[in-house]
Structures are given as C-alpha cells and as structure tokens.
Amino acid sequence: MRLTLLAVLLPATIVIGSQLRCPASRRIKPCTCETVNASTGLVLVSCSNIRSWALVKHALRPFRRRKVYQIARLTIERIANRTSDTRTLQRMFRWLTIGELIIRNAPFGAATKIPRSIFKNTTVFALTIDGCGIKEIPANAFTDVQHLQELLLPNNEINHISHKFASAENGLLKIDLSRNNLSSIPQELLRKSSRLEALYLRGNRIVTVDEDDLSNCKSLLILDLSINFIEHIHPDAFSGLSRLDFLSLAFNPLDEGDSEPLRKLTNNCQLKTVDVSGTRVQLKNLISAKLTTLVAQQHDAINQTEICCLAGATKLTHLDLVGSQLNITTIRNCGATFPSVKQLDISRTETNITVIRHFPNVEKIYAYRM
C-alpha cells in the first residue's frame, strides 16, 4: 500500500507525543480530509465536484506547512470551470508531500499540455492524470516533481511527447499511457527509465514494435500492448526483456508471421502470463516450462498441432480459450493430457464438458454457451 510506502520513505517529523490532525473543515472547504496517523501528520484529502482550480488551491493552503503534513492520497476530480488561467495553476502543489496524487476529469483550463509550474517544489511518489484532455507532454513537464516513481496518464489524448523529455534518471517504476492517441512506442519517455517495471500502452494507435523501442527497459516485468493496431513486431523487439513476467498483445492484427519474436522471448525470459486473444499468433511459439497462464480468447488459428504443443507447458495452470475455434475432435485427436491445468475456460467453443478427461486435475471449468 502507498500508505505504507509513504510512512517508510518519509520519517516522522512531528515531535514525539504530539498529535496533528486534519485542519478544521471550514479552512479546507470545499475539500475534505481524513486523519490516518495523527502522530506523523498522515492524512487523506479529497476535492470532488469543485467549481474551480482556484478553490482547490485555497483549500490546500493549510497543508503547505513544510515537513509537517504528509498527504497519503490527494484526489482531485470533476472541476466544473474549465477556463482556469495559467496563473491560477502556478505552484498549485508547492511544498506538498504526497504519496499518491490523482487528478481525474479535471482539465487544466484551456491548456492541452501539463503546465510545468504546477508541480513546483512538490514531492509525489505516484501521479495520476486521468481524462484531463492532455494532448502533449512537454520536455519539462515533471522536472520539478521529486521522488516520482509512478506516472499514470490514461484516458487522455496524448499524441506527442517532446524528444527532449526529461525524467529522473532511473526513477520511474511504472508508466501507464493507456487509451491515448500514440502512434508508436514512446521512446522519449523510456530513454532514462532503466528501472521501469511496468509499461501499459493499451488502447492506442501503435502499428509496429521496432527493434530499439524497448531496448532501455531491461527491468521490465509487465508489458501491455493490447488493443492497438500492431501489424508487425521486429524479431528482436523483445530480446532485451529477460525479466518480463507478463505480456499482452491481445486484439492486435497479428498473424502467424509475427510469432518469431515471441518464440525468442519465451526462450530467454521468465514469462509466466501471455494474452494473445484476438490474434493469429501460433500458440506453439509461446510454450515454455515457465508459462503458467495462457489467454487466447477468440483465437481462430488453434489446430491439433497447437493443442498438442500446449501439453509441453508443464506448469500451465490457467488456460482461457473463450470463443476460440476449438472443437472436441481436435482435442481428442491430439490424445495428450494436461495434468497441470487447474482452471479451464472453454466457453463459446465447439467443445463440451467431456474434454475434462484430458484435464485430470482441473478444479474449475467454465463452459458457457451464450
């Protein structure tokens, strides 16, 4: 939990025996506050359905006492007045120490990019800007944010990231740019993210994955590229991702010819969970001794050879084939059994419950027809 993270990273600055609770409600209207730990000044602050950013700025004044209050989570959502000027936004979060800052459905006035001065002298560990109409990430967007580890910018309209973008060296651990308008993997954002562990690019307009797109992400554990327009993956695009644990390529127009990079990946990394739903990627190229979860919903290229190869995944415990072109004959003709599978979903396929004999140790099986 980020409450714990904040407590560990920010030692108590209050004199032992003192108690620091939320300011009086009249001082922080229209926001609200909840005390988490009075001995360390740890609080939760929420500002919802506010008329303007000016009112938010005024409500945050009591928390600006340097090294006193620690805001575990600050939530700002649904700002009604979307015409705030840049001057109002300047130093909005100055001198605040925040574990998790969530800005949701609260556009920065007429601006379509993140104002640099908004985070002047601000400490934030996890920053979320969700559904705020952002189209561009300028070079200096987060240079004033101290200790930033998670940068989450989903549900915006981002289509440009400055090639001079500066992020803290080895700082970011998680980046989420899901549901934006990116046409390629944002190398500008990844250039200095050598410690990055999770990258979410779901629901963009990415067409290809080139050889060097992820070359700086040596520590990556989670990669979500689902629901894009990816037609081609360079054979060596994933070659440096030796620590990768989770990969989703679901619902991209990939076919059998894009299986080579996946074969190399499964041979050289710790990959345990793969989602290739809605693609024609060959399942046999995903099989490894480490694979535990395979999701291949609406997969229309499952044949007898593919099914037989799955038997080689000796640690496969979860198999999801919902809506795939799979029939009972294919499984019977294969003749193999899958003793490691504990959970099986064959809903909306041309199979029936009799396939259970091929899964002797299954504990949960789903076979809905609707």
TrEMBL record:
The keyword Repeat applies. Keywords: Leucine-rich repeat, Repeat, Signal. Residues 1-17 form the signal peptide. It holds the Pfam family LRR_8. It comes from the Eukaryota. SMART domains: LRR_TYP (SM00369). This is Uncharacterized protein. It comes from Plectus sambesii.
